[in-house]
Amino acid sequence: MAGRRKRKSKPLKPKPKLPKMFECPRCGKITLEINVKNGKAEIRCGNCHLIYEMENVPQVYGKVDIYGKFIDVYAEKGAEIG
Question: Which structural domains are found in the chain, ordered by start?
């Protein structure tokens, strides 16, 4: 009985990394930083100094989810934020 050749395994694709900095809807630069503590999220832009705080953020939300909610709020309120 002859042995079979070993099949080459497919190389694993690296998992995509989630961003730490996001694009600011006001100035368009990728300088928006999100900090989460005790159910509150603070969103700050390092370029135009936009600041927004979100209360009652669920623990299951990641920074990407918070950014999505922030973009929705910014689209509604716009110039009132800041």
Answer: 21-77 (2.20.25.190)
pTM assigned to the model: 0.77
Cα distances (angstroms) measured from residue 50 to each of 27, 28, 65, 70:
9, 12, 19, 12
The runs of H, that is alpha helices, within the chain are 63-77
Count CA atoms closer than 13 A to 63's CA, side-chain side. Answer: 16
Q: Which tens digit of pLDDT belongs to each residue from 53-67?
A: 999 999 999 999 999
**CA–CA separation, 51 and 1 (whole Å):** 72
Phi-psi region of 38 (alpha: psi -120 to 50; beta: other; left: phi over 0): left
The residue to which tokens 């936009």 are assigned: 50
Q: Using one digit for the tens of pLDDT, what is the confidence trace for 1-19?
A: 567 777 788 888 888 888 8
